[in-house]
Amino acid sequence: MPRRVFDERDLSLVKEVLDSGMLSGLGGGQMTPRFEREFAAALGAKYGVAMNSAMSVLHASVKAAGAGAGDEVICDPVCVFGAVATMYNNAVPVFVDIDPVTHNMNPDLLEAKITDRTRAIIVTHVWGLPAPMDRIMEIARRHGLFVIEDCAHAIFASYKGQYTGTFGDVGSFSFQMSKQMALGDGGMAVTNDEKVRDELALHAGAPTFHSVAYGLHWNYRITEVTAAIGIAQLERMHDYIAGLQAVAKLYDDAVAGCEWLTLQRAGPEYVHTFHFWVATFWGDRHGISMEDFRAALERHECGVNIGYTGMPAYKHPLIAERLGYGRGCPLDCPLYAGQGNQYPEGLCPVAEEVIPRMVLVYTFSDDEYHKVNAERLHQVVEEIS
0.90 exceeded by the pTM? Predict the structure, then answer.
């Protein structure tokens, strides 16, 4: 472990779907509602709404928040996807800087970004480490804001004994093949609010004469076959997570005592589920250049990625070049009267400094590979320290 297992359990559930002759949850399929119930229950949430991707969940969740043209949604700047979902809804993403160690949204900076146009906050639990949701939720509730948790990296991660995705109004989970729970594609929303569940469910079906009476909705339905595999994989998730945590410990041990690599961690009340093992490089403060580090990694054939995308979300061409729907929308929508659509250099100085310094290892691969790779990283640290 970690090694994904697809076996007779998955096949038996898929066969149930095929034997039923109903490959869609629309019109009578039973695997999708079962998957929704079992996933929500596993997290301690009341409701689940399955969709074809986590981006679909984020898009629908921003809509459920009531955000649209002229509105703002607060996002964090490491991953671009919250901003993308905001722009899908013709709203404007406003960025809050990160903590330099955890890489998550810094709640100390959140309140200053709230305006009378703010409708929602999207919080990413980046790499599998929960954000400090009690502080974020206190601010959000005081201002009457909808909170969306992006848990694409953080299934069964927890903060103070509570699973990520269950603090806010919606938790969004990804089942894309690289994620901890890999179904090829797919996503799930969880919520404790029945009205929010009903709004999201309108996007998880197909436009009908009934649904269009309630407004414009999308067709983000998951298939019964995907839901069936999801039920089987959900049963294995805690074993998978334990395996990822064991892999992370290999790399923790490899860099133990290294003064110039800071692990992406928080306190004991945070349970990290390690979609990636991540540290931050500060070698230049200790006489070690990034070039030295890269060269040593290459010499030792160590499989480490440096720098993630190399830029915060607002420097991606989508935002920096004002791409979108045309005629100025969404970032320069004529209905927007705020200043949150300005993204100058230095907007999130911590993110701008830290993202190029991120040292990442994708954890979901063979144990033997990670044992060898972690030892190679240890040799790199020993050689250039």
Answer: yes
